[in-house]
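Provenance

Sequences were taken from public entries as deposited. Structures were produced by running a predictor on each sequence independently, with no templates supplied. The record for Cell division protein FtsL from Sinobaca qinghaiensis is shown for reference.
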Amino acid sequence: MDNLAKQIQRQRHQKVEIHKEAHEHVKKSITKGEKIIIGTAAALIMAACFFIVSNFAAIYGHEREISALSQSVSQQSEVNQSLEVEISELSAPDRIMYYAKEELGMSLQDDQVKVIQSVNQ
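Predicted structure for Cell division protein FtsL:
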């Protein structure tokens, strides 16, 4: 019986060795073609990421420039409105008459006044 047990053990040991050898012979490696494909795909993904980030950076820069310009336009619009108010105040007929009489010493002579109509009316 002892011999039979040793034979069974040897057979099992041989089967295990054959099974191990079969696994050892199977070499899992990446081929050159797969390496080229992976490298090319990685390069394309990196290029796409760079392109997207650079576009977002350009868009952000343009948006900041537009914002600054719109703020400048609104400030200039306020300045223009205040100047229009000042023009209307300074061109009032009563003010002109007062300035002409008091400051410049002029007098109004109604017989020499000529009325000129504007073309834009």
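The mean pLDDT is 84.
The first helix runs from residue 2 to 25.
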